[in-house]
């Protein structure tokens, strides 16, 4: 079994997936627009440039996404994408890049359960956790 993330945006999928690739790496495998697809006739005319399906392959995980029609969109809440790393410099790099222009819920700091930890929503509304584990925790709870 493989679990992946599927995110919904309000006209920002192409920008978000391109941004996530610039920060996380990987390869964009799909960026299918509504216009020219079999679904085009079922979408509002003003949404024809929206992304019907996008896929960023990060290796063992994929981030998939699409633009939702305004009437079907709801702001993400109640879930986060958690990035587990063991390198503090990498944790700080990810935090700085992904949280820029977003909303910080908990700034990057040491905690009793992590060398560094942060919670935030990025500028697209996607909620993230950055969890920098020590070596013992990484062995007991592999990412």
Structure report:
The chain has three helices and eight strands, in the order βαββββαβββα. It is of the alpha/beta class and 143 residues long. The protein has two domains: 68 residues, 2,3-Dihydroxybiphenyl 1,2-Dioxygenase, domain 1; 58 residues, Signal recognition particle alu RNA binding heterodimer, srp9/1, CATH 3.30.720. It has a four-stranded mixed β-sheet with strand order 1-4-3-2, covered by helices on one side. Strands 5-8-7-6 form a four-stranded mixed β-sheet, covered by helices on one side. Strand 3 and strand 4 form a beta hairpin. It starts with a strand and ends with a helix.
The beta-strand count equals 8
Domain module tally:
2
Tell me the strand order in the biggest sheet: 1-4-3-2
Largest sheet: 4 strands, mixed
Name of the CATH superfamily of the largest domain: 2,3-Dihydroxybiphenyl 1,2-Dioxygenase, domain 1
Structural category is: alpha/beta
Shape: elongated
Assigned CATH class of the largest domain? Alpha Beta
Helix count?
Answer: 3
Unreliable runs, pLDDT <50, ≥5 residues?
Answer: none
How helix-rich are the residues, as a percent range? Answer: 10-25%
Q: What gyration radius follows from the Cα positions, in whole Å?
A: 17 Å
What's the helix-strand series? EHEEEEHEEEH
Distance between the termini: 16 Å
How much strand? 25-35%
